[in-house]
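Feature request disguised as a bug: please show the residue count (339) next to PpiC domain-containing protein in the output. Example input:
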Amino acid sequence: MASYSASRILHLNRVPALVFGAILLVALVHLSSGCSGDAAPEAYVARIGDSYLTESEVSSSLRALPAGVDTVEARQQIIEQWITRTLLLREAERLNLREEPDVQRQIEQQERSILVTALTDRMYNQADVGPSETEIQNYFQSNRDQLALREPFIRVRHLSIATRNRAEEARSALQTAAAEGAPLDSTFETLVNEYAERPKQSRMLSTRFVPASRLFGHYPYVRDELSELGPGQISPVVEDDSLYHVMQLVERIPEGSEPELRWVKDQIRRRLTIRSRKQMYAREVQQLRNQAAARNELDIPDYGSPHAEPTGMPAQGTDSTEADTSDADPSSAPDTTTN
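Example output, currently without the count:
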């Protein structure tokens, strides 16, 4: 009985066609190894031959989706995509496409890429020790003049709630607490516990300054409403993508401001972690080069010394505080935790 992960199906739908073709054919062995004599799983949502998409796989994929996604529609898309991809894989197997030279070359390239990425991730995980508070403070003091904010930084109390009535209740309670001068942090924590669909995100946004560009990417109406709020103001209930949102702007730090450490501490921690990873990567690659050269396995006739400094770090990114991208993480995607 073969089971093809729904989360992998979702991933396949996002990658370029050429890469998708390679991954699709790598998965072919897994799909063709079904055990027809085995009993079907107790809870499956689709079957093609001996291949099953299980309820647990669909649920796992749904949990990984961003907030605000219509889960009913997403569930149907996951199932339909799995059916389509599985049928295509079975047809590719019937045509024996994996034996074609060009397909073999693509599979081998993809396999090499996966293995290198897996090794790099393992090196990072084994050596990843975050910077100390002293290191963060020293970096901040040494680079403060270069850390001017390149966009507004925002702290906001935000609740995403399942129904309009409950959202109105939460908004009223927040307004009452603000009017009476009650401690808003403790009031908001009570509201998070009672109303929030995503309590972890609500707590994070209420305690940190976040670059404006990283806020509410999946909620355009929420984003528009937030842009109109002044400090302390509470929004009306905003319906966006099947949820109802209430928010209070705590503070907005304008672009160009010289930051306080609390505003950029997370960014500095990330930058120092990235720098440490790059240094570790360079050391590990250099060690591998030296070992290969010592075994007479490395020969670069047109480049000179086989002991040259390693290059070829993966793609770099940026952050919201510095124009310099020299510390961009080669392994990290943009931060989307607040979308």
